[in-house]
Amino acid sequence: MIQREFKALLDDYAHSPHRQNVEIITHAFNFAHKAHYGVRRLSGEPYIMHPIAVARICVREIGLGSTSISAALLHDVVEDTDYTVEDIKGLFGEKIAQIVGGLTKISGGVFGDQASEQAENFRKLLLTISDDIRVVLIKIADRLHNMRTLGAQPKDKQYKIAGETQYIYAPLAHRLGLFPIKTELEDLSFKYEHPDTWEEIHSKLEAVKQRQMDSFEQFAIPIRERLTSMGYQFTLKARIKSVYSVWKKMMKQQISFEDVYDLLAVRIIFTPNESMSEKDQCWMIYSAITEIYRPHPERIRDWISTPKANGYEALHVTVMGKDGQWIEVQIRTDRMNEIAERGYAAHWKYKTGESDDSELDKWLREIKEILAHPEKDAMEFLGTFKLNLFAQEVFVFTPKGEVKTMPLGSTALDFAFLLHSELGEHCIGAKVNHALVPLSYRLRGGDQIEVLTSNSQHPQKEWFNMVTTAKAKDGLTQYFRREERRYIKHGERLVEDAINMDKDLTDKRDQVLARLLNYYQLTTPNELYAQVGQGTIRLDNIHEIVFPRQSWWSHMPFIGKKKEEPTPGPSIEKGETKSEGEKPKKKAPHAIVLTDDDLGKKYILSNCCHPIPGDEVLGYMDERGQMHIHKIDCPEANLLKTSYGKRIYSATWNTRRVQSFVETIELKGIDKFGVFIHVLQAITQDFHINMRSINVSSDDGIFKGTMEVYVYDRKELEELLKAIRKIEDIKEVKRVVD
Predict the structure, then answer these.
(1) I want to staple 105 with a disulfide (CB 3.0 to 4.6 A). Which of 8, 124, 130, 214 is the partner?
(2) Which of 349, 379, 403 is the last residue before a domain boundary?
(3) Which of 198, 61, 201 is nearest to 138 (CA)?
(4) Is residue 223 within 8 Å of residue 167, measured between CB atoms?
(5) Alpha helices in 274-352 (DSSP H)
């Protein structure tokens, strides 16, 4: 079995365009096979099967060569055996050793148990972008194979790994242009987080797949004829939406599977003629298609004139098929398709010279700038980097007409920081299309922006609420850190001067600092210096603070009193979790059962996502031992899964319809006489559900309403929504989460 898989790897490599160097790959395989001999994975298969699978992903799905394949085969040797990076260097050379060393630093997942460890491990992963981006590409391949074999892991590990994958690895693959891998990572994460929902949508997709393919064949006939008559060599491919993509659309638009109409997309991949530019030929094919099918005027996407930040180039148009269905057509050359499929590796293959400076190159430079000043707090660091991964883009212009790519939602202040940190720090506003706008103005595609500055302007803390890009947030963070250091230096000098001016204090410097910290309830001298430097603490009464009179000493609440310890939260099982510092009697199982008696007491239902019985949920234990219940797809839960995997617990409901929960539903429809009466009848008479509040408004014949209702569980809520949808003139009904 092992030899068969290794032969398949060599076959994949033989069919790649790389210069063949089978000897080094075979050497790496033999060495790794011997190093891992006798070790098995949780699935029971020999461990060496995993490095082989990762190496096959590297060559077949990312397009990497012999150096990366060899490093992939060796990627767990240093971590799991007695061999060192120096051993690898002596046997395989410095470059392979450097990549293996980079992979070893980030082994065991990006995230550890403690926040500081998480930030450091994650930073190590990103720093490899500066050293050799192949480390990150191989790590993504490693994560893809781990996701493909995740079924062997226990449930709580599945939640942690899937959450981490969804939060970081899928967006990272997207940003590096690995679209098929990004899609599969998202789909597999969704499969393990929502197995029942995944299976339901997957079954429905399989049921309609043949019908979609028949529709594709009919749709493709006239396109094939036209492109053949134009003399092109081309391939037509059909792409069905992934389960995760379908579910995301269902959730976003609050529609059923049957109402998702754009399941099918068509891809045209052609070999361009050398006599014309690729861009001109893409538009010629666009013209040919729109002569056959009517285009949607608002759904044309030109990613050729201005490629995406991950290097993606294509021309998209949505047209109406003969059966009345909208179908997206993606037009690409062979080169564009390879970059779309293999991302960064293919991007470098097609670089033509040192002057090439794609959006991907600019992004990598920006990441390196952020890494030069990492956040102290792990969660902030994660959030800052995450901003740079999955944002949609708008294209704007400088006064001289230079195109700049900005994440959707960026402000004028973000743009100023993009140009230069000093422009951002002194920005007072901007002119957009020659009209004056404030710092908080949100940019739109096509805007031409001129940044206005003043030397008297300096950043304010409120600016953090005005920016969305990682570069702007990092720029503000660096400014305030510099200011803090300046205040500390100034404050330390003022404290020293105050001590030196009082003879009673001169020889008692340490005692003076201790008394001042105690008096102002501060923990470190730097906190004291910073507040003194800013002027929020004055030292006029320093003598009285250090030598207090007894009359008021005894009334100081923070002197001589023991700091109260936090009350420990409830345990998750009888006798399992004790107060902080006390060793538990037995290890807590990573599975909990939610009962009516425990809800709101032993288990807290989180306000961020309002879970109710029937929702797919998980538990998160905080530092005090309190268990919080979140929906599995709650954004807060995704961050917790990513960062505190060992505190995540699988959870199931065992309630008896005793408690009711307030849920908000939103509906929209045609404002006809009596329509809302039917809604109220469905709620109160058909379902006997109580209501807490109603808010309805009407505008130009359309009404919108929100209602807070008391329901026992998700099933009752879904049945209510289904009944309301059947009412004539009701067009949209959905559950709302704040």
Answers:
(1) 124
(2) 349
(3) 61
(4) no
(5) 278-292, 334-342, 344-349
**Residue that the structure tokens 């700091």 belong to:** 563
| CA–CA gap between residue 119 and residue 385 (Å, rounded) | 11
Whether 672 and 641 share a structural domain? no
Report the DSSP beta bridge partners of residue 707. Answer: 665, 694
Same domain for 25 and 165, yes or no, is yes
Which residue shows structure tokens 């206005």? 452
CB of 649 closer than 8 Å to CB of 618: yes
What CA–CA distances, in Å, run from 424 to 358, 383, 437? Answer: 24, 20, 15
Q: Where are the alpha helices (DSSP H) in 374-508?
A: 378-387, 412-419, 421-425, 470-500
265 and 177, same structural domain? no
What amino acid occupies position 313?
E
Q: What's the rounded mean pLDDT across residues 204-228? A: 90
Burial of 100 (0-12, 13-18, 19+ CB in 10 A): buried
> Which range is least confidently modeled, 2-16, 164-178, 707-721?
164-178
Question: Which of 349, 374, 392 represents a domain boundary (last residue)?
Answer: 349
Range of the domain at 97: 2-195
Is the domain of 164 the same as that of 17? Answer: yes
- Mean pLDDT across the stretch 334-342? 88
pLDDT at 568 over 80: no
At residue 106, what is the residue type?
A: I
Q: Is 365 inside any structural domain?
A: no
- The two most distant CA atoms of the chain are separated, in Å, by 102
